[in-house]
Write the structure tokens for this entry.
Amino acid sequence: MRIGITCYPTYGGSGVVATELGIELAGLGHEVHFISYSQPFRLNGRDDGIFYHEVPVSSYPLFEFPPYDLALASRMTEVAEFCSLDLLHVHYAIPHSVSALLARQMLQTRGRRLPFVTTLHGTDITLIGLDRSYLPITRYAIQQSDGVTSISNYLKEKTLSAFDIKRPIEVISNFVNCDLYAPCVDEEARAAARQRFGEPGDAILIHLSNFRPVKRVVDVVKIFALVAKELPAQLIMIGDGPDRSAAEWLAHDLGIHSRVHFLGKQDKVNALLPLADLMLMPSELESFGLAALEAMACKVPAIATRVGGVPELIDDGLSGLLFPVGDVQAMAAGAVSLLKDRDRYEAMRETARKTAQKRFCSTLVLPRYVAYYESVLNKTQ
């Protein structure tokens, strides 16, 4: 198939999933065309069968806000015609599904049918879509999509109830390439790499996000500060965003800044995750928890919050530990207890990896996307 993919190319779960999906689809022999305002950050040109089409957005004095959604719809139409796309797959409903709908309508006037699939990722439904300014158009775009998927059962039920949706939504979970995201097999090499961040014997905790308020990165620093009082430890912070400054200042104020390593955005997180002992994910809300899944595939259990779709990913007490939002004391105590109980910790590492392999590996999830594309194409022919 020739598939057009549109996503936000920035550092966030929806863009990561969309990009990894395109890479995996190209690996299966499909032709993938990314259509966005900049190249997705995990797309590095290493794969055959992947093409990138930039969306130019003109800025005129009349436009206080450049109309990206209209420019995107025009570019989708052009790419669909020039590259003979079979379908579009848009990630994050606003505004991508609306642009895809416009592109489909424009092509229909020329006797061409271009179906599109919308994948719902989280805040496009739980936050932005519920804003009264966007709710009617979000509902309409979902209803008009040729296919709709969500990344968790939680998000599916939230969408059906909050938007009064009367159409089926297919749950296809996020996934991880279990060959790329894997534990270090060379313990000596792992130990040497860990020395970049601390002394031998230090526990290494890690956090990966876009540092938005919903990720509660200040809580990450608070949790680590409590852990560091109980045992020698280091914290790796991967990502960037609006709350980075607050987290940096807190680390400085608490006197732990020398043990907190802010690395910014990283292209190869698969090389950093296996160095850690625990993932910290104290989010206000997660519709799935992709960062935790990528860590789990590397045998790194997560200390996370019992919110949204996280319990569908993490079995509390088996593959990770779940706590109420904001309970930094309990999360820190859970981390310390786990790190001090080596038998329990090793068992949890093994379970985390097996969970990723048996339920969320790309080799299991990708065929579901391909089958869903084929069902949409069969229905719209």
About this structure: The chain has two domains: 2-175+362-380, 187-359. Residues 187-359 form a domain with the Rossmann fold fold (CATH 3.40.50.2000).
